[in-house]
Amino acid sequence: MNPKEGLHLFVSVGSQVVDLKQGEAILWSAPVSTAKKGLGELEGSHQTPRGWFKISEKIGDQLPLGSVLKSRKPTGIVWNPTDPRTNDDLILSRILWLEGIEEKNLNTKNRYIYFHGTNQEHLIGTPASHGCIRLSNDSMIRLFNQVDVGTLVWIGM
Fold first, then answer.
1. pLDDT per position as a tens digit, 48-95
2. Rounded distance between C-alpha atoms, residue 88 and residue 70, angstroms
3. Which secondary structure element, helix H or strand E, spans residue 92, and what is its range?
4. Spatial separation of the C-alpha atoms in residues 25 and 41, rounded to whole Å
5. What predicted TM-score, i.e. pTM, was given to this entire model?
6. How many whole angstroms separate alpha carbon 141 and alpha carbon 137?
7. Which pLDDT band holds residue 4 (cuts at 50, 70, 90)?
C-alpha cells in the first residue's frame, strides 16, 4: 500500500517524527515518542506495531488542552505542565485510535494503540512509550484537527 495522492501519516521510528503528507509532499511534521521496547506486534509486548493502519476513531474533540482520558473517556482532570513530574503514562488531550489493516497488525486496535498527548513531553523525540505514539499536547491537537477517521498511517523505520 502506497498512497500516491491521498492524505496520510508517516511515522519514522528511527527519526521519532510523524509527517502529515499529501502524496509525497510533507504538509506538517512533529516529533513523537514511540515504544521504549522498540517495534513489534505481539499482544502485551509494549512495542509499537509496524506497517499500515487506519485511524478508526477520534476521541476528545473540544476537550481542554491537557485533559486526562482514562479508558478513552475524559476524567474531568486537566494536567498542567507545571504539575510535579511523575512516571505515570497519562493519555492527554486527544486520541487517534489505530486499527491495523495488514495481517501482521490486525490486533492493533485490541492492543489500544493510539496517537495521544502526554504528560511526558520532556521525552518527546526519544523512544519512551508503552507502544503508543505520544506527541506534545499542542501537536496532538493540531494533528487531530487535520485528519479524519479512515486516514491511513504508516509506521516503520
1. 999 999 999 999 999 999 999 999 999 999 999 888 888 888 999 999
2. 12
3. strand 91-100
4. 29
5. 0.95
6. 6
7. low
Amino acid at 52: W
Residue-level length of the chain: 157
Q: Is 14 exposed, middle or buried (0-12, 13-18, 19+ CB in 10 A)?
A: exposed
Q: Are 28 and 151 in contact (CB under 8 A)?
A: no
Q: How far apart are the first and last CA of the chain?
A: 16
- Picking from 27, 121, 102, the residue whose alpha carbon sits closest to that of residue 18 is 27
For residue range 14-42, what is the model confidence (pLDDT) as tens digits? 999 999 999 999 999 999 999 999 999 99
Q: Which amino acid is at 60?
A: G
Residue 149 CB partners (closer than 8 Å, separation 6+): 54, 55, 56, 57, 58
